[in-house]
Write a structure and sequence with these properties.
Length: 276
């Protein structure tokens, strides 16, 4: 009976992941190629990235993540950063550096076994592979959490997650499968069942666009209502006049001012919930 339940759960999760793959495909016409070198970093910069140390690390099977951390000795909160459907590209690595400059140890994970999408066709293929094996994807993310916990400069009791689009959906999925201290979701596919969300015992930040047709406002409102019903502390921001992936500097939907405001809200959220 337990095996049947587990199998059913995987089927449900697979169907759920299909939603986020379809959501990311909305960007195909706008982002036919892999994102260009990041434009966000200078605009969002607060900390000093020259004081950040980075390295590639193997944290799960064939998955090598990008670890960014302050050079200064100390014990810091850890954050699992989850990429968009393009994969662990230079844009995500730069965002990991920027977040580490704020006083966090950031592990930007790789869910595509080292592959980075050069175009929408490849990104769709890689995302589909994840969709077809959701249990392994959860293992990947849980391994990332465990990797951070054993680092000598990480407070093992303070681990958070964040992600954009494809990564936003997986940030939520990680929260449903692992104890964390905070969860950040940028326009990722959502769960609206309050009973399922009730396992989350920490604050959730959601960033969305009012013109996002793949993650519509109605769904966001249902998500917020379900969180409230489940007693999950949450902070939901819906930006007027912007659509899906508005924080991606390579896309037609890119909205610099809203991106900057959302990033400030993200940093403030982490400070409130992770910094001791």
């Amino acid at each position: 009976m337990a095996s049947v339940t587990k199998f059913s759960g995987i089927i449900i999760l697979s169907a759920f992941i299909l939603v986020i793959i379809n959501a990311c495909q909305v960007q195909v016409a706008e982002q036919a190629q892999q994102p260009a070198p990041p434009k966000n970093v200078e605009m969002l910069k607060n900390g000093d990235t020259s004081q950040v140390e980075t390295k590639d690390v193997n944290y799960f099977e064939n998955s090598n993540g990008f670890l960014a951390m302050p050079k200064k000795e100390g014990i810091y909160p850890g954050i699992v950063m989850i990429h968009e459907w393009w994969g662990l590209n230079d844009n995500i690595k730069e965002m990991a550096r920027q977040l580490a400059a704020e006083g966090y140890v950031v592990l930007a994970v790789d869910m595509f076994d080292g592959k980075v999408g050069k175009n929408a066709t490849e990104a769709r293929e890689f995302s589909t592979n994840v969709r077809n094996n959701p249990a392994k994807a959860i293992e990947n993310l849980k391994a990332a959490v465990n990797f951070l916990k054993i680092q000598s400069n990480v407070n093992k009791d303070i681990i958070a997650s964040m992600g954009w689009c494809f990564g936003g959906q997986w940030s939520l999925q990680l929260a449903l499968n692992e104890k964390l201290s905070a969860t950040v979701i940028y326009y990722g596919s959502l769960e609206t069942d309050s009973q399922k969300l009730a396992v989350i015992k920490w604050p959730v930040l959601g960033i969305f666009g009012a013109q996002d047709t793949s993650i519509p406002v109605e769904t966001v409102k249902k998500f917020e209502a379900a969180l409230n019903e489940a007693g999950v502390e949450n902070e939901i921001h819906i930006y007027e006049g912007v659509g899906h992936a508005f924080a991606n500097p390579s896309g037609a939907n890119y909205a610099p001012e809203q991106t900057k405001d959302a990033w400030q809200k993200t940093l403030e959220f982490f400070r409130r919930n992770l910094d001791s």
